[in-house]
Amino acid sequence: MSDFISNFWHLYVAGITLVSIIACLILLWFSGKAKAMTANDNTTGHVWDGDLREMNNPLPRWWVGLFIITIVFAFVYLAMYPGVGNLAGKFGWTSAGQYDAEVAKANAEVAPLYAKFSGMSPEEVSKDPQAMAIGDRLFMNNCAQCHGSDARGSKGFPNLADNDWLYGGSPDVIKATLTQGRNGNMPPMAAAVGTPEDVRNVAHYVLSLSGSPHDSLRASLGKSKFGACAACHGMDGKGNHAMGAPNLTDDVWLHGWGENAIVNMINNGKVNQMPAQASKLTEGQIHVLASYVWGLSNKTAVAQ
């Protein structure tokens, strides 16, 4: 990968760009100086369709002038804008800067709309039809790709409508998750649990915590080995919001259900990431979006 970010490539691009323009100049000069072998009537001897003869006439002046103007424009453009390797150009224009400017302009235009909701609590915002319509659009544009258009998620992506939360489901926690993102890490625990049989036993004990189908004998053998997991999930298996450790007693399975899925999790661990949205959304947008997400799992409170 380092080959693609070395200093060689910007020099390569700069060289290709400048050589191409200079080659055009040489071609133009050569076409004006080169003399073709012609007959007395200024024809080259090439004939098409019986009587269509090629003449050795010079290029039209307007065409030559337009060609020169194009080359001059290319040099001026490269001096003003980036195009010669990593040189920024006199104006210092970048596509990222253009994007940021357009986003800032758009945010300034809609700021008065979000200002209306900034003084309202998330619970109040979740009851406002206009705010929820805006929140729905924000969710579709920024969250639905992972959590689904119905916010019910899929394997590896949490359901936001079931009131089961890894880090807590209060409006403030949801807002913090949107702003800062989350990095969940379940380390491989096989070595701490014991033998492969111990891992299977623990898997059945975990299944028993939620009343899921399991082997009761293996579950009883795995209970003592569950102590390796209790530091995060608690001795009762109900998880820890401060660490993002899932509740293992509620029959909600983010990464798959069953003995094989749990054994794989214990053996290999899992890393999940929720990207931070602070760089994409304004504070007002995050406030409305957090209120919308909170309302998805608190429909009874919203309806009151």
Automatic annotation (TrEMBL):
InterPro entries: CcoP_N, CcoP_N_sf, Cyt_c-like_dom, Cyt_c-like_dom_sf, Cyt_C_IC, Cyt_c_oxidase_cbb3_su3, Cytochrome_c_Oxidase_Subunit
UniProt xrefs under Pfam families: Cytochrome_CBB3 (PF13442), FixP_N (PF14715)
One Gene Ontology biological process: oxidative phosphorylation
Compartments reported by the entry: Cell inner membrane
Keywords: Cell inner membrane, Cell membrane, Electron transport, Heme, Hydrogen ion transport, Ion transport, Iron, Membrane, Metal-binding, Oxidoreductase, Repeat, Respiratory chain, Transmembrane, Transmembrane helix, Transport
Domain Cytochrome c intervals: 130-210, 217-297
GO cellular component: plasma membrane
Residue numbers binding heme c 2: M186, C229, C232, H233
SUPFAM superfamilies in UniProt: Cytochrome c
Pathway linked to the protein: Energy metabolism; oxidative phosphorylation
Protein purpose: C-type cytochrome. Part of the cbb3-type cytochrome c oxidase complex.
Subunit structure: Component of the cbb3-type cytochrome c oxidase.
Protein name (record): Cbb3-type cytochrome c oxidase subunit
